[in-house]
Design a protein that fits this description.
Length: 360
Amino acid sequence: MTDDIIGRYESVSKSYGGLTVVKDLDLDIRRGEFLSLLGPSGSGKTTTLMMLAGLQSPSSGHIFLNGRPIDGIPPHRRNIGVVFQNYALFPHMTIAENLAYPLKARRLPKPEIARRVQRGLEMVKLHAFAQRRPTELSGGQQQRVALARALVFEPSVVLLDEPLGALDRQLRETMQLELKQLHRETGVTMVYVTHDQAEAMTMSDRVAVFNDGKLLQCAPPREIYDRPESAFVAEFVGENNRLVGTIVASGEDGCTVKTDTGLVIRSRPQPGLAVGASVFVYLRPERVLVGPAAASCENRYVVEVADAIFLGDHTRLRIDLPGNPNFTVKHNFFGDARPPGPADRIEFGWTTRAPQVVAT
Ligand code: ADP
Ligand code: MG
């Protein structure tokens, strides 16, 4: 394990009774990164986090922190900060006392505790609230206290389990920015659980996508978006059009898919997929080009527009494509004298780099 890897799951599984909820997980956590665990409810994200925190233990496999196995180390000795959706502040203590709690538990000298509490309060801009109790703060403020409390003892990793889930949308977006800023300022490694793909995409250095207890892909947001390796990831993250087909040619110069409805689609090389493989071809609505822009595309079709919805910054076209009656295109027609509407025939297409081809 190298120095830039702070944590590692090695063949980790977790079962409750006969049900395996985390399946043979291999995952590295890089020092200083913001790593999101993304997946639908019940996909095993919280369980994965709890095992690192020491609040659950693996049924098999091992977890390492700073190069050492942590199997026998109790939660409070792992030097990990945790923040949950329900803030779990101590209601009978003031904000300052809440922040001091983990420092007292670690028997830090009094002046050092005072210094760190002060700094923690400033970090989340709550120094004016030091003597209040949690119930006298708003939800967002309480969550900032929880965050500061997870950071004051300078943990090597902070684990956050849907910490913004209970906040309304606007506050959630503000808190996302604050959290990212805290991450930059402190440089602390953060592992963040969310079921919200937009949140994971905007905040993370890397996103680990889970489904049904399995880690499907772990990569930077851009790669997750542009190069999903499975149908699940392609459909869970962002919007995608799906076509079903078979590989009819595959080589170093590219790959050709014939859809079940007879469309021929050329894509970049797909080394993992051989002729005869059943595949899904995904196309992001914004990667589909319309009109003159499509002229130079290797994949080009003329079709009838089924529907056009003007949304200000772009127009959504629905195209009744053979094999996908709801094929969606996002395009802006700035400068066009008359944007296309229902029943217009248009030329559209995409480059060979646009299709994401994955095994069914
Ligand atoms: P997520 O955080 O992705 O929603 P969880 O890790 O909480 O998923 O849960 C994964 C699965 O494990 C779910 O099916 C859940 O019901 C089950 N599970 C979680 N904790 C327990 C437990 N203590 N006992 C039994 N089943 C559990
Ligand atoms: Mg959960």
